[in-house]
Specification:
Helix content: 40-55%
CATH class of the largest domain: Alpha Beta
Structural class: alpha/beta
Oligomer: single chain
Bound molecules: 4'-deoxy-4'-aminopyridoxal-5'-phosphate, glutamine
Number of domains: 2
């Protein structure tokens, strides 16, 4: 077989979920809710199928859903995305990221990724024939703009931003976005902005979308996912918003990779998005879970890192173990009975840290059981 991605193993999410299942561990590794979505949303899918939404959607997505996405983005971020030209419905954020990267980079180009970097960026860039250039964040998981500047070469074509940030839970600030705007203008870069956690931002902080910044909006592919926002990660429906010239390039590839996305869920999401309450309430919903989980973890020897957004809580375990992160995550799963994700897998080069990530998008009893196991693990 032709050797595509010869050095790429199985994604950590598959590895840790399988290990958790094998050992009966509470799975706080892979990020997905273990509770049901809103019954009204489920009913809307059933209704859509009953009403005949069962054939191919238009290649770019159902118009009602594109209109709902454009209206929400424009209302929230002051942008002016056109529902017909600038919004494309995708098979989740993952396909949005892959296709956006392929639309704007090619052989020999370099793409800056901020590490720890979500694990699909690196292979997506390599598949496009381009070179991922990892730039580690600062020790407290802020974007290190001096290091980003230093990593830019004449071959740098794009940068991948992710805010709120998986796995650190950090949220980019207005200054971060302005810095990126200057840099992108100066070096004529495309920006792939992974904003799948846009509605999970805590303590009154603002989500700084690229759509809020005119100089970024015009050169960015904004990637979103309904899976995160509506507790339906298995539906794999998302969107990409980009100015029409960028969207046209995106759609040239999209039409021959997926053509179009599952129709009844698109129709249901369009109906459901008309009510802002579910996504407006999401930050409050998860902030309460974050607080309860942090309070429970405070009873363990693990040190909590800040969590400003996303449904991930990162901890430092150096007080209890000197194992490398992957070994510790395996030990935690098989011996303590709680699965976690090691941060080391999100870097190109080995790191000296002792950090793992827990997902708190779980029922209260699930989180309580995980905390109970963690509290007794080092007794
Ligand atoms: N980007 C980030 C940062 C994510 O955490 C995820 C989901 N884990 C995705 C993209 C992919 O989203 P989807 O599940 O909609 O493909
Ligand atoms: N995005 C999820 C996470 O970070 C996992 C998605 C996947 O399993 N590919 O945990």
């Amino acid at each position: 077989l032709p050797a595509k991605l010869p050095h790429t193993g199985t994604t950590i999410f598959t590895v840790m979920s399988a290990l958790a299942a094998e050992h009966g561990a509470v799975n706080l590794g892979q990020g997905f809710p273990d509770f049901s979505p809103d019954p009204a949303l489920l009913q809307a899918v059933t209704d859509a199928m009953a009403f005949g939404y069962n054939q191919y959607a238009p290649m770019t997505g159902l118009p009602v859903l594109r209109q709902a996405v454009a209206a929400r983005l424009n209302g929230l971020y002051g942008s002016a995305y056109d529902a017909d030209r600038d919004i494309t419905i995708t098979a989740g954020g993952t396909q949005g990221l892959l296709t956006a990267l392929h639309a704007c980079v090619g052989a020999g180009d370099e793409v800056v990724i901020i590490e720890p970097a979500y694990d699909s960026y690196d292979p997506a860039i390599r598949l496009a024939g381009a070179v991922p250039v990892g730039v580690p964040m600062t020790v407290d998981y802020r974007i290190d703009w001096a290091a980003v500047r230093a990593a830019i070469t004449p071959r740098t074509r794009a940068l991948v931003l992710n805010t709120p940030h998986n796995p650190s839970g950090r949220v980019a600030t207005g200054d971060d976005l302005r810095e990126l705007e200057r840099l992108a203008e100066q070096h004529d870069l495309f920006v792939i902005s992974d904003e799948v956690y846009e509605h999970m931002v805590y303590d009154g902080q603002l989500h700084e979308s690229v759509a809020r910044h005119a100089g970024l909006r015009e050169r960015s592919f904004l990637v979103g996912s309904f899976g995160k926002t509506f507790h339906v990660t298995g539906w794999k429906v998302g969107f990409v918003a980009a100015p029409s010239a960028l969207s046209a390039a995106f759609r040239r590839l999209h039409q021959y990779t997926v053509f179009s996305v599952h129709t009844p869920t698109q129709q249901a999401l369009a109906t459901y998005l008309a009510d802002p309450a579910p996504w407006q309430g999401l930050s409050g919903f998860y902030q309460a879970r974050r607080d309860a989980f942090r309070a429970a973890l405070a009873q363990t020897p693990l040190t909590l890192l800040p969590c400003e957004g996303t449904y991930f809580q990162t901890v430092d375990y150096s007080a209890v173990s000197d194992l490398p992160e992957l070994d510790f995550a395996r030990w935690l799963t098989t011996e303590a009975g709680v699965a976690a994700i090691p941060l080391s897998v999100f870097y190109q080069r080995p790191q000296e840290r002792r950090h793992v990530r827990f997902c708190f998008a779980k029922r209260e009893d699930t989180l309580a059981e995980a905390a109970r196991r963690l509290a007794s693990a080092w007794r």
